[in-house]
Amino acid sequence: MERFYTAESVTEGHPDKLCDRIADSVLDDCLTHDPNARVACEVMATRGHIIVAGEITSQHIPRVPGIISQVMQDVGYSMRGVSVELFVHRQSPDIAEGVDNPLEQRDGSTSAGFGAGDQGIMVGFACDDTPEMLPLPVVLAHRLTYMLTVVRKAGMVSGLRPDGKAQVTVEYDEEGKPFRLDTVILSAQHDPEIKPDELLWELTDKVLNPALRIMPPDENTRIFVNPAGRFVCGGLDADTGLTGRKLMVDSYGVFVSHGGGAFSGKDPTKVDRSGAYMARYIAKNIVAAGLASRCKVTLAYAIGKAEPVMVSVETFGTGTLCADDCLEEAVKLVFDLTPTGIIRQLDLLKPIYAQTSAYGHFGRPGFTWERTDKAQVLLDAVK
């Protein structure tokens, strides 16, 4: 294992995350009125313009300009001078047919519910480094950006604006366990009249110290706050945002590979999203069962086919009761890996997605894919 690992996070006011929030809010609005809606919503935002495009097939027509206005207000931006353009059409009838009438049903082998809405590779990961069963740098980076947003919205630090980023490097020992904090970077957008020294003191007291409590800095930890100097111009005035451009922030950083599919704006028939949630669910239950201390689960699907074409489990030599191929068979036995099965097990037709759009999709309580209710079942399956 490498000696140092780094992870980053961004606030909900970062342009890319703003686009994810808009896309997922459109999805939530559709699912609120039509749980069977098919949504693939993409957003681009830049100075003065927000463009929403994609495919939506639903009994409900989302009022996209109103949704955007509410998101902008919630995050802390103004719609003044911002135009909205829409380029939305219905889902391809060919894709819809493959989802509604999967290969297994067409060839008479089984009645399998939905087929996958696209091909793709999904990766899930869990480890016992933290209570969240995520790598420590990932947890700390998200804590920093979340705390930065909390103190801004609560008025605990005056003069903060919505945009911000964090990056954390942790040193690992020879056994692959985190043991010291090496580097912390925090960039916080602020009003022009804010003095850098005052901002540094406030952010140290109200963001850095609380967020890093589980692994405090030592005398050799490097801490950089707004290392570029002023960070007044931010948000859409400084950067262009796109949905799906913070894949590693959304998942596990550099600790494991990524299948390449983005999450936000996609209904759960798109296995890019639902398959990734299921892979995390499986990996977390394997670690919770004590079957491994680190686990990566990889799923692969073909468009229009319900069953995955690949199920892989890798425990990096930390497995306890059985080999990785044995765990793969147990996973197939315990979990229904069809899109219909995933949606049912994780209850994914509810409007829950806007809250996933910032601070990572994993490691946060309340989401069904974070439950460890299958740990004992997995244990029984391998014994």
Fill in the keyword field for this structure.
GMP Synthetase, Chain A, domain 3; flat; alpha+beta; 11 strands; 383 residues; 3 domains; 22% strand; four-stranded mixed β-sheet
Account of the protein in words:
The protein has helices at 15-33, 64-75, 93-100, 103-106, 136-153, 196-211, 247-250, 271-288, 324-334, 339-346, 375-382; strands at 4-10, 38-46, 49-57, 83-89, 120-127, 160-172, 178-190, 222-225, 241-242, 294-301, 310-314. With 383 residues, the chain is of the alpha+beta class. It has three domains: 4-10 and 136-232, GMP Synthetase, Chain A, domain 3 (2-Layer Sandwich); 15-101, 2-Layer Sandwich (GMP Synthetase, Chain A, domain 3), CATH 3.30.300.10; 120-129 and 247-260 and 268-382, 2-Layer Sandwich (GMP Synthetase, Chain A, domain 3), CATH 3.30.300. The strands form three sheets. The chain has a four-stranded mixed sheet. The protein has a four-stranded mixed sheet with strand order 4-3-2-9, with helices on one face. Strand 2 (38-46) and strand 3 form a beta hairpin.
